[in-house]
Specification:
By secondary structure, this protein is α+β, with helices and mostly antiparallel strands. It has one domain (about 5-140): Aspartate Aminotransferase, domain 1, CATH 3.90.1150. It has helices at about 5-15, 20-35, 105-125, 140, and strands at about 40-45, 50, 55-65, 65-70, 95-100. Strands 1-2-3-4-5 form a five-stranded antiparallel sheet. A hairpin with a 3-residue loop joins strand 1 (about 40-45) and strand 2. Helix 1 runs antiparallel to helix 2 (about 20-35). The longest helix is centred in the C-terminal third of the chain and has 21 residues, at about 105-125. The protein is globular, with a radius of gyration of 17 Å. The relative contact order is 0.13. Mean pLDDT is about 85; it is low at about 135-145.
């Protein structure tokens, strides 16, 4: 049996959640994919739309009465427009609980998505690869030459 690609599985989830929550997940998805063309869609944990770029950027889940958009490294992101309304006391993740009557500030959410991508890029650039080389292409030019 052939496994469907993540984009198809996300389409199916959106269609299955036939109320406003499906529409909201579709809106979030459009924003994420439009914000960064290098973001990859995945479908993890038996049913969670996940968007990655050098690590997880965000995930979205329908819950009873809300859609939760979680940023695994949200505690490290600037949130000047105060979108985060869940997990505020945690050390890593932050989430946005969106309810039916909420209006999503698309500009503010786009800024958070960009910040999450930049956070991931910075952390990948700072981590050594398994062979001890830095993973950033700029790292080879920044090495000091011995004379």
């Amino acid at each position: 049996m052939e496994k469907a690609p993540p984009s198809v599985l996300i389409d199916r989830l959106i269609a299955h959640v036939a109320d406003w929550r499906g529409e909201r997940i579709a809106q979030i998805r459009r924003l994420v994919l439009r914000t960064d063309r290098e973001i990859v869609e995945e479908f993890k944990w038996m049913g969670t739309p996940t968007w990655t770029h050098d690590g997880i950027v965000a995930i979205a889940n329908p819950h009873k009465g809300k859609v939760k958009v979680t940023f695994p490294h949200g505690a490290h992101l600037a949130d000047p427009r105060k979108l985060f309304n869940n997990g505020l006391g945690g050390r890593e993740w932050r989430a946005i609980d969106i309810f039916e009557t909420d209006v999503v500030d698309e500009n503010a959410l786009t800024e958070l998505i960009r910040a999450a991508v930049e956070f991931n890029r910075a952390n990948v650039a700072d981590k050594p690869s398994p062979k001890g080389r830095r993973t950033s292409p700029r790292s080879s030019s920044s090495r000091r030459k011995s004379r």
